[in-house]
Design a protein that fits this description.
The complex is a heterodimer of chains A (112) and B (116). Chain A has 112 residues and is mostly beta strands. Chain A is 0% helix and 54% strand. Chain B has no helices and eleven strands. Classes of the chains: A mainly beta (112), B mainly beta (116).
Chain lengths: 112, 116
């Protein structure tokens, strides 16, 4: 069955530290990839997405993600986190069957 | 631009009771999704509509859950009768229609259901 794995359920960082959140999926065909974020008290919203082209995609607030097809991965990165990045981050994969599968999420807490 | 609206925001019921949730998507969005998000897990798709037709309801427990999208706009999701394990946040999302895949989904605030 198709699935999405997020390796870390909880991450705690100090401000200015670098961030990398892992995401792997199990599907051998063409995929569209998303990272969504949910800030405390807010709705889920799109952070960035990859459909095709340059595998390094940039999103809002300085986030970027790299699609590595050979590793079935779409890891999220940010060189220097801020306290305001405290949120829950979800990786999501669309396998082209009009179904989006979400990972379990990673809760990020950034210490000021 | 108005976002996705959902109501109620919170609902507490006893097991075996019925409950209904309402969703109004962003104007012009052809695709509407209902997700169930259990605490500590990611959203799980229950049903997806394209206009007023069902695209995917493979994970909808059809013995107790039902959903409709009248006139291709608003949608309701019903649970009858509810079980303890239905306690979750029910999210509604909408997106524009693409030919071969989903596009960015815009989520509502969700309805937090507690079944006692």
């Amino acid at each position: 069955a198709q699935s999405v794995s997020q390796h870390n359920h909880h991450v705690i960082l100090s401000e200015a530290a670098s961030l990398e959140l892992g995401c792997n999926y199990s599907y051998g065909g063409t995929v569209n990839l998303f990272w969504y974020v949910q800030y405390p008290g807010q709705h889920l919203q799109l952070l960035l997405k990859y459909f095709s082209g340059d595998p390094l995609v940039k999103g809002i607030k300085g986030f970027e993600a790299e699609f590595i097809k050979s590793k079935f991965s779409f890891n999220l990165r940010k060189p220097s986190v801020q306290w305001s990045d405290t949120a829950e981050y979800f990786c999501a994969v669309d396998t082209g069957g009009f179904k989006t599968i979400f990972g379990a999420g990673t809760r990020l807490f950034v210490k000021a | 631009e108005a976002g996705v609206a959902q109501s109620p925001r919170y609902k507490i019921i006893e097991k075996r009771q019925s409950v209904a949730f309402w969703c109004n998507p962003i104007s012009g969005h052809a695709t509407l999704y209902w997700y169930q998000q259990i605490l500590g897990q990611g959203p799980k798709l229950l049903i997806q509509f394209q206009n007023n037709g069902v695209v995917d309801d493979s994970q909808l427990p059809k013995d107790r859950f039902s959903a409709e999208r009248l006139k291709g706009v608003d949608s309701t999701l019903k649970i009858q009768p509810a079980k303890l394990e239905d306690s979750a946040v029910y999210l509604c999302a909408s997106s524009q229609k693409l030919a071969f895949s989903t596009d960015t989904q815009y989520f509502g605030p969700g309805t937090r259901l507690t079944v006692l």
